[in-house]
Amino acid sequence: MIAYIRGIIDEITEQAVLIETNGIGYEVICPNPLQFQAMLGQKEKIYTYHHVREDAQTLYGFQEPEEKQLFAKILNVSGIGPKGALAVLASTSVMDFVMAIEQENEKFLTSFPGVGKKTARQMILDLKGKLPFEYHVEKQESTTTQKDMDPALNEAIEALKALGYSDKEINQIKPRLKEEKQTEPDGYIRKGLALMMKQ
């Protein structure tokens, strides 16, 4: 099992990151390869899940170990394969997904591509109380407060929605927007539009 790869980010495609180490280039399928755009040409560590089938071996990669752990857990849900698990991680954060499972929020879960009510119920049945992450109420409240403290970002996100971008598209670039730390919505909007053009 390949747990992680440390090497140079050599290329980024729509579906994967190519990372070179010891003269070998590994194609690593990621939920959102654009997250690695700023790391192009740099030495980085990607946490990997080595998925083996009779007809194929595929490496899936993640920036954080929690994402990898959640990916593995979602794969255990009946009816969900790697493609479906990637779609979930591309659309939301680990914390928001765990909260949705624990609160049995079917509406949130059915917002993911390919997830209907039946699959959402199966997710809750298979994962509730079994996810290896602890998110206490205090942490949730702190996170909510932190979101409220950045009205410029919230306003920019609403503006992008008004321009016709979907929640999925916005969630894919939200981590990059948060890194910007702009003081005005216009700054976030300009960065968001630039990132959307690259997708």
UniProtKB/TrEMBL annotation:
The keyword Cytoplasm applies. Pfam families: HHH_5, RuvA_C, RuvA_N. This is Holliday junction branch migration complex subunit RuvA. Belongs to the RuvA family. HAMAP family: DNA_HJ_migration_RuvA (MF_00031). Its main location: cytoplasm. SMART domains: HhH1. Has three domains with a flexible linker between the domains II and III and assumes an 'L' shape. Domain III is highly mobile and contacts RuvB. SUPFAM superfamilies: DNA helicase RuvA subunit, C-terminal domain, Nucleic acid-binding proteins, RuvA domain 2-like. One of its GO terms (cellular component) is Holliday junction helicase complex. Residues 152-199 are annotated as: Domain III. The RuvA-RuvB-RuvC complex processes Holliday junction (HJ) DNA during genetic recombination and DNA repair, while the RuvA-RuvB complex plays an important role in the rescue of blocked DNA replication forks via replication fork reversal (RFR). RuvA specifically binds to HJ cruciform DNA, conferring on it an open structure. The RuvB hexamer acts as an ATP-dependent pump, pulling dsDNA into and through the RuvAB complex. HJ branch migration allows RuvC to scan DNA until it finds its consensus sequence, where it cleaves and resolves the cruciform DNA. Homotetramer. Forms an RuvA(8)-RuvB(12)-Holliday junction (HJ) complex. HJ DNA is sandwiched between 2 RuvA tetramers; dsDNA enters through RuvA and exits via RuvB. An RuvB hexamer assembles on each DNA strand where it exits the tetramer. Each RuvB hexamer is contacted by two RuvA subunits (via domain III) on 2 adjacent RuvB subunits; this complex drives branch migration. In the full resolvosome a probable DNA-RuvA(4)-RuvB(12)-RuvC(2) complex forms which resolves the HJ. GO terms for molecular function: ATP binding; four-way junction DNA binding; four-way junction helicase activity. Residues 72-91, 107-126 form the Helix-hairpin-helix DNA-binding motif class domain. The keyword DNA damage applies. The lineage of its organism: Bacteria, Bacillati, Bacillota, Bacilli, Bacillales. It is found in: Cytoplasm. GO terms for biological process: DNA recombination; DNA repair.
